[in-house]
Fold:
Amino acid sequence: MEAQNEGESQGKQSNHQNRIFLNEGHHFPGKTYTEVVLKPAYDEAKLHLLEPMMAINKAHLIMLVEQGLLSKKDSRQIAKAIRSLDLHSIRNSHYSGQVEDLFFQVEKELLHLAGDIAGNLHIARSRNDMCITMFRLALRGKLQTAISSVLLLQDQLLKFATEHVQTLMIGYTHTQQAQPTTLGHYIMAVVDSLNRDIQRLKTAYHQCNQSPMGAAAFTTSGFRINRERMMELLGFDGFIENSYDAIAGADYIAEVMSAVQIAAMGLGRVVQDLLLWSTQEYSVLKVADPYVQTSSIMPQKRNPVSLEHLRSLFSSCVGNTQTVLTMIHNTPFGDIVDTEDDMQPYGWRSLDLLEKLCRLMAYVMGTAEVNKAVLRERAQASFAVVTELADTLVRTDILPFRTAHQIASKIVKRAISQGKPAHQITLAHVNEAALEAIGKPVLLNEEQLRQSLDPDYFVKVRSLPGGPNPDEVRRMIESRSQKQTDHKSWLITARDKSEKSFLYLDTVLLEWCLNEEK
Structure:
């Protein structure tokens, strides 16, 4: 009886599974496969890849004609079909399951508009080289936009630094008060970090802006196409010579993601400082009203949530880039979906996030207020200046630095125990410590002591290249402003090249169609 009941139970379970499988359908695409893979990929592609796909279609058509692989008559027919496509309708379309992906959807519509001759548009190419080219073109455009916003932020930071060249503040190491510096000096460190980010993004851009077209599946083609011409028509800087590498290589996106990740991590660290400075305890930075929110219960609150969102979303940006790098890791070196449709959206999102966050950060910084008086008072009361006291003892008394360091350390400990700030240290305190350390008073006089405890003097004498001396910071601002001008010129050139290449494609197809009408 038990065996019979068990058999009936297994039969019911089997029937249940069969009903599930029947609901999936008998033909491609399966319902769950559509839901999990095909529909999301189609929705991403129609938003990000449609324009690159059409540019490739136009360029490939022009190249085939130039190489004598398509007649003028056939090419005009295909050109008319390309120009007649309703891209707005495609962008707003829903995945129907009648075709596999966006490529076949566009091809289906071209065949409908031009007839079977439209099939010749696929001579000597594959979805393999097309897809990688589309990904690179999409990344190229998003990189241009992201770099533009990074430059906007850097521009705002340069202005901020200029305003605070002489804004005295305490610098911290290991979260403890360390030495006096200026807010301008601190911000210029951020500017220089951003400059390296921009350089990394530009280098990644060059590696990304290489054409895979002509690689076809991965072995090129027996048709005598012109790979260099495809490179020129699509506005690439070069083409990937080895056709297997053109399809298999994913380091171009890994390099872009690494550059984005480093930039997001660096900016997230800066935002953490800004958040601390915005607390009442620090009382240094006041975020402008458009970028704060109040509490639902505590009327006094000015929550600098824009900075909080910046910090969390920079982390999200890092997470998206890490997802891309993880998806590439340990995948076969060849044509594989791991480096394509499933992965690319994370790359696009990371670039979109970096672009938006840099814009937001620029506006927050451009409208924030700095409490210069509090910064100065803290610097004057702080023992952060005593490095200069030790340095001065080396000069006045010809002491070894370690001995001078020991005397200064004794002075600080005694002053703290007596509740005295740095600017209340007297010559008697110095000599008391010197007698303990070296057995005699120092030659240091009162004027030299006062000077060594002055944070303005501390900053002024640190005029070595890269130091906080105001004139040196101004020199750095001028130098970095010129670098930024160079970066902006590069971006203008890169965008101009991309836009002109796409415009040329449209111009050629339009001329063909007009000539046919004549």
